[in-house]
Amino acid sequence: MAANGSRNTTSDVGVATELLLAALRGARMNVEINLAALTDPVYVERIRTEASQLEDDARADAARARELL
User: Fold this and answer.
1) Which of 24, 14, 12 is nearest to 68 (CA)?
2) How far is 24 from 52, CA to CA, in rounded Å?
3) Helical spans, DSSP H, in 1-69
4) Residue 57 CB: number of other CB atoms within 10 A?
């Protein structure tokens, strides 16, 4: 949408991007809360690493979308 959509939707795309990032932060908080209850440190670290990578990727995607607005 940011690259090919109507310029009239710029603010809609911007708001959607920010909402997606907020949802991501909320999901990450839930993951961290649930990981605290687990006892397998290898698994916990693997999930934290994966979650961090997903969060980094999402932030990079959001930054690219903002650049296109």
Assistant:
1) 14
2) 11
3) 10-35, 41-68
4) 11
